Amino acid sequence: LDKTVRKVLVDANLSKQYQAETVGNTDSYHAKFPFVHHEAGRALKAIKPLHLAHADPAMIYDHGWAWLGKVQKLRALRVLPERVLFPVQGPTETDGERFEMFQDITGKLAANDVQVVATTQTEMIVEFARG
Which uninterrupted H or E stretch holds 86? Predict the structure, then answer.
C-alpha cells in the first residue's frame, strides 16, 4: 500500500514534500510513518496506509487497534502531527463480519481525529497532501 500512495504523491508532484519518519520520542514512544510533511521545522501532516483486508477477522482488529493505540499515545504525548490520514484497504461490503469489523475500527480511528479514506480515493489523498 505504501507503493500505491507513493505513486499517488509522485503523480501529483508532491512526493518530495513527504518523507518517511519516526514520529515521537525515540527514548519513550514512537511510531514509523512512511509519509510525513514538515513546515517550519514542525511535522504538520502524516499519511499511513493501512491494510485491513485480512482473511482472518481477528487480524483486522489486531492491526487496526495497534494503530489506534499508536495514534492515541502519540497524541497524548503531543508529538503526533496535527493532521493524519490513513488510506485503508478493507474487505468488501459482502464480506459480512469482516466488513463489520473493518467499519468498527475505521470508525474508531475517525473518532480519534484520523481522516480515513479508501486507498482508491486518490483525489482525497492528493487533497489531503496538498491542503
Answer: strand 83-89
DSSP string for 23-36: EE-TTS-EEEEEEE
From the number of C-beta atoms within 10 Å of its C-beta (0-12, 13-18, 19+), residue 89 rates as: middle
**Position 36 pLDDT exceeds 90:** yes
The distance in angstroms from the start CA to the end CA of the chain is 22
The pLDDT tens digits for 46-65 are 999 999 999 888 899 999 99
27 CA to centre of own chain = 23
C-alpha 122: how far from its chain's center? 14
Say what the pTM is. 0.92
